[in-house]
TrEMBL record:
Keywords: Hydrolase, Magnesium, Metal-binding. It holds the Pfam family Inositol_P. This is Inositol monophosphatase. Mg(2+) binds at residues 79, 97, 100, 237. GO terms for molecular function: inositol monophosphate 1-phosphatase activity; metal ion binding. It comes from the Bacteria. Its cofactor is Mg(2+). One of its GO terms (biological process) is inositol metabolic process.
Amino acid sequence: MQLSITDLNTLCLLAIKAAQKAGLLISEFSTKEVSVKNKEAADSLASQVVTEVDVKAQNIILEVLSPTLSKYDLALLTEESVDDKSRLQKDYFWCIDPMDGTLAFTEKTPGYAVSIALVSKSGKPVIGVVFDPTTQNLYHAINGQGAFKNDVAWQPNLDLEGKNSFTLHIDRTFLEFDYFNEFILGLEERLTELNINQLKIQKQAGAVLNAIWTLEQAPGCYFKIPKPTAGGGSLWDFAATACIFNELGAPATSFNGSALDLNRSDSTFMNHRGVLYASNQLIAKIIMGNPILAKNT
């Protein structure tokens, strides 16, 4: 079933409603002690942590969105449920992370968010909704209709001109790589050539807000290099923000610059191609061309 512009607008409003309801629940639990469990996932702690709030948030989201599955013939992929592979048959599927950045949530620090996307069978995100419970900021985009922050058309300043600081958004595991310091030195040299003399490192957020903050705190970038082992984030970590980046004309690609594989058939992990988000094309080229990263991918 192909969706019309009217259908997309209706579905986006429902996704916004679901994200805000889940965000309200998350906010209510943000100052409480919650039970934390580990699940089977990739090898990083951030990917293994799950709380009762993740599950409750997912249930709230599905209360809103489940009726659309039959009405619009949609498939469903969520972080806290088994992938039934229906996303490979239907024309579109919901791709949901009820609370990305669970580790930050358990540490009671900003960095967690609700992420809901609608993705085509070809892997193109057509709706992206992100809600940050800490700031109450809502970000959304619909393919071909632009990006919005708190329901107002949004076009952050992504230019390098006049900027003297750069923010590198990273996962904590990247700090443990033996080539991290060498990479930082090389990046600082390239930034100096652009008259950027301050490099900030932000390592507290999940993938969703790492991407959003790449826009909010531009110039900056967030990436995950390809690796042979399972991990590298999952489809639901990147689908919504990719839609927002696409509408802003900012790079959201695989690490080699090719399109994100957001409906990978053999896995939900993104390790095979990696991920690169950048505030503009020049920054993306600098990261892709970094010799230290190239040697280790």
